[in-house]
Amino acid sequence: MPLGIFVLIAAVTILSIFAIERGENQREAAQLNARAITIAAALERRANASSAYLRAGAALLSGMEEVPADEFRRFVSELRLDADYRGADGIGWAKVVRPSEEEAFNALVSAQGSRTAELHPRPDGNRPFAIPVTFLQPDTERNRQALGFDMYSEPVRRAAMQEAERTARPTATERIVLAQEGDGEEAGFLIYMPVFEPSAGGRALKGFIFSPFNAQDFVQSALELDDAGSFGISLYDGSRSDEGLLASINDGEDQPEVRSVTQVLTIANNPFQLVITSHEDAGLSGLSMATLIFGLLVGALLMLLVRMLTQQAQEDEASLAWFEEQASIRNSLTRELNHRVKNTLANVLSIIALTRRRSSDIEEFADGLDGRIRALSATHDLLTQSDWGSTPVRAVIDAELLPYAHGGDHEVRLEGPDVELAPNDALSLGLAIHELATNAAKYGSLSQPGGSVSVRWKAMTQSLVRVEWLERGGPPVKQVRSRGFGTDLIERIVAHELKHPVELDFDPEGVRCVLLIPVRRATDFVLRANRSESLQG
User: Fold this and answer.
1) pLDDT tens, 26-40?
2) Residue 285 and residue 405 share a domain
3) What is the DSSP letter of 483?
4) What's the CATH code of the domain at 492?
């Protein structure tokens, strides 16, 4: 009998250990797959952001007859990129240089302080033109090493350029070593966007705006958004091989690989493979060891073991449900972002149409359009910094009133609680404040010493906030006046977007405007919900 009880307890213990290890393996597999999806999404966001900047640069440069160095530096600085250029080494311009233009190009490169100070390697006559690195920002000693390098002379770069020219889309190269690496061997890639100029035949290639990427830095920059944890990360160009390896982090080469997940991602029209690996831990898990020791010693622990197994299964189920929920949130946010982009474009088209009807000449049209588009841009910067999550009311108003906040001859007061706005509502508020501030600077209380502007906001309900703009101390407001664009924009576009009427009064003592803005749940716009709250809910 004692032997039978011992054998029974030993059998139950062994089966329990097997179940625990199997549950651990399933949980680790789910975590590994979720981490692969998350990191792949972070890499694609980084690359897509750089591609968007290149598209914007191509649109700007195509309208210039020449691209001066100062204009290119100003364009890059106005993009307001983060400190690491979203994982890139910068943004560059490479113009088409024909044989008759080599001397002029060498003089241009020499003026920038390049060590080489000329086009290299020298064209061999087999190609109709060269496409050397003309400008590369930021202007660092490392980046100057690439100036003058004819990227069209190298087959891998040339193939990507030709594909980008054919499709007129940003295109990434295969694995290369960047010219600014010098004698280094660190792998990287480039994204090219063609720039065309009108010609008698339709359009002609003017050059390429591009971003070089050190692959290791690119992966590291994405991990600032989504940490790798204890998993190994490898990025491959094409197939999983040593020749295609771009970057590797926490690869654990000294430990045997247990499992890996491969996630295919597309960066600028070129497929890459992201491989996430986990490595074998020596021995059994802590829970299995405890079950083995105490199961063999005390049969009474069998009930406790059942309870622990049940709890472990519940945690695994909750983890899998959380991963599925996050995938659903990510898909919903993609659809929401598409909707926001369409709304923003609709706002831009409305602004253009109204500005055109209210402008008497092209200069007035350009000035009015420039200020309104910059107002949209300022609010977009705030939304980008929050990863298109909720944005504080104070931050939106501060961004639009910044040019007037430090004047010594007038006063700007902001009062209100901390209230977070949804992205579309923040854009509408930014447009309204911009129009009110512009009007106040031209005709109202900010146009003369002693004037003041107060902006107060308070929560009417949990889902509605009231924002009041009030001017005092300025010139008397004309009671007989023509209807301006700002009035149309606030009472039509802004009111339509906010789905609440706008109260706009032109009192003799100063303009007064009241906006009612909906307040939606912040969790509707956050990319990653808090896991602990999700599991508790």
Assistant:
1) 777 787 888 888 888
2) no
3) P
4) 3.30.565.10
